[in-house]
C-alpha cells in the first residue's frame, strides 16, 4: 500500500492576519506616543526598588491570629454583600421578566388585544432590560466601586 506524500500545511488567511497585525501595531505606536507611554520607566531604579519592596511583603506570608481573623471577617462580609446583591437583583429581575414576557401575558390566553398602556410598559421594560444586559459586568463593578 502506497501512502501519499503529505502536503505542507498552508494557512490561506495568513496575509490578512499579518496585515491586521501590522495595522494594529501601526495604530498602537501613535497611541503610545499620545499617552506618553514609556516602557523604560518599568526598569528605572526607583520602580525596581518599589517592586522589590512590594514583592518582599509577600514573604513570609502573614499568618498571625489577628490577620486570619481579619481575613475571615472580610471574606464573610464579601459573601454577605454578594448574597444581598443577588437577592436584590432577583427581586427586581423576576417581576421585570414576567412583565416583559409575551408568552405569559393574559392577552395571549384570551382573544383580545393588549391595551396601549400595558404594551408601552412592556416595551419600556424590554428596552431597559436590553440596555442593562448590554453593559458588561466589569463596568457595573467599576461604577459601584466608584459610588461606594
UniProtKB/TrEMBL annotation:
Keywords: Cell membrane, Membrane, Transmembrane, Transmembrane helix, Transport. Gene3D superfamilies: MetI-like (1.10.3720.10). Its main location: membrane. The chain crosses the membrane at residues 20-42, 78-104. It comes from the Bacteria. It is a multi-pass membrane protein. GO terms for cellular component: plasma membrane. It is found in: Cell membrane. This is ABC transporter permease.
